[in-house]
Amino acid sequence: MIPPKPAPRADRVGLWHHLRLFRKDILSAQPARLYRAKMAEFRAPFLRSVLINDPGLIREVLVERPEAFPKSGRVTRGLSRLLGNSVFVTNGKTWARQREIVNRTFDGPEIRRVFPALLAAGEAAAERVEPGVVDVEPMASRAAADVIFRALFSRPIEDEVAQGVYGAFRDYARAQPIVTPAAFVPWAPTLHGRRTRVAAKRVRRVIRDVVEARAGEIATGVAPDDLGTRLMTATHPEAGPMDPGEVLDQVAIFFLAGHETSAAALAWALYLVADDPGLQEDIAAEWEGFAKERSFSALARMGLTRDVFRETLRLYPPVPMMVRETSRAETFRKRHLPSGTQVVISPWHLHRHEARWEDPDRFDPSRWERRDGQGAFVPFSTGPRVCPGASFAMAEGVVLLAAIVARHQITRAGIPVPVAHLTVRSRDGILLRFSPRSTL
């Protein structure tokens, strides 16, 4: 099966036409040659950037010399109203201190500790699906929000506070473009529409209330042992704990990374398995075997579901592009790049690169048994700045997908068109038809 992708633009268009396309949809604005190129260069009056599709160059930037390629402020400025000074946007010593604390929150033992909350959220999501045609994007968003709230603050999504954050963040994600004028013109203001500003303020306000309430519970010794408590009480060996403002910023990025990205991946995974009853039966059988034990270790035996989710992340990586910046002059593939050059790593193009993958546009979970595309799969980034919640996200994806498929037979009710907002979503929603699984 070959799933849809947006039609790329012609290889040559005018600069301002390209910028308008880029602002509207970063995926279809790109030329077709990026699915074949090892590197491509883009120049504008106030911007010079290169997109690298060579696994060796990507490894150099993200793994071998990450300190020479900090995160680009041109891109992260657009998220500042929501994420503040979180680990997602910081660089240097500030990032290193924050990251060490965050790593302790998302290590293996902590994921095992909150696995029952993840499992409960998956089963609740499967029970909420009603028979008939459903736009699975909002359904997946609710399921992912439920997971992150149960894991962080021991609150199910039905909780009034969780609902407040979920609704505000949904408005923010729909209003915030992935690219702002500041990405092209360094002195341009970071423009936010009124809807974006209001939604970001709502998210921050509600999360602040939750964090402050948890701080009081910690102080009185009645806080639950969840990821929120672990994060707020974690300390750096030299710098100590994060201050209240930093904690708020980290919780905001955890909600973004643990909710928006997971929701996007789940929606596309459900679309990809729809209309394949045999694959759905196999996933349901894996879930039945898992359900006998219901443990974190039992996930290791759900190999097919894991490969389906990996293939989803390949075809529809939630974060379609990552941007770094040269801190000094560099030479890539015999091209001189001055300091300040934007270095773009595009999982969207790398994961569909014609030289790296066999039949790259085809949905084929079996390719993971063949170890196709070595070095060309970075849905969570890689190196020191790899997503700290990557293991959690993989476990979440497997549980949510299998739990829903085990209870429902799924067919397609439309053909979605992928576009990039904050994450890779569908332009008009993803419509699927659900009916109760006859074997249940």
Overall description:
- There is one protein chain.
- This protein is α+β, with helices and mostly antiparallel strands.
- Helices cover 49% and strands 12% of the residues.
- It is built from 16 helices and 13 strands.
- It has a four-stranded mixed beta sheet.
- Helix 7 runs antiparallel to helix 11, helix 9 packs across helix 10 (227-233) and helix 13 crosses helix 16.
- It is globular.
- Residues 12-23 and 181-191 have low confidence and may be disordered.
Structure in a nutshell:
With about 450 residues, the chain is α+β, with helices and mostly antiparallel strands. It has 16 helices and 13 strands. It has helices spanning about 15-25, 55-65, 75, 80-85, 90-105, 110-130, 135-155, 160-175, 195-220, 225-235, 245-275, 275-290, 305-315, 345-350, 365-370, 390-405, and strands at about 40-45, 45-50, 130-135, 235, 240, 320-325, 330, 335, 340-345, 410, 420, 425, 430-435.
Total number of beta strands? 13
Outline type? globular
Which bin fits the share of residues in helices?
40-55%
Largest sheet: 4 strands, mixed
Number of helices: 16
Low-confidence stretches: 12-23, 181-191
The helix/strand series, from N terminus to C terminus, equals HEEHHHHHEHHHHEEHHHEEEEHHHEEEE
Q: Looking across the biggest beta sheet, what order are the strands in?
A: 1-2-9-6
User: Could you report the average pLDDT, rounded to the nearest whole number?
Assistant: 85
- Taking the alpha carbons of the first and last residues, their distance comes to 28 Å
Q: What amount of the residues lies in strands?
A: 5-15%
Gyration radius, rounded: 21 Å
Going by helix content, strand content and strand pairing, the class is: alpha+beta
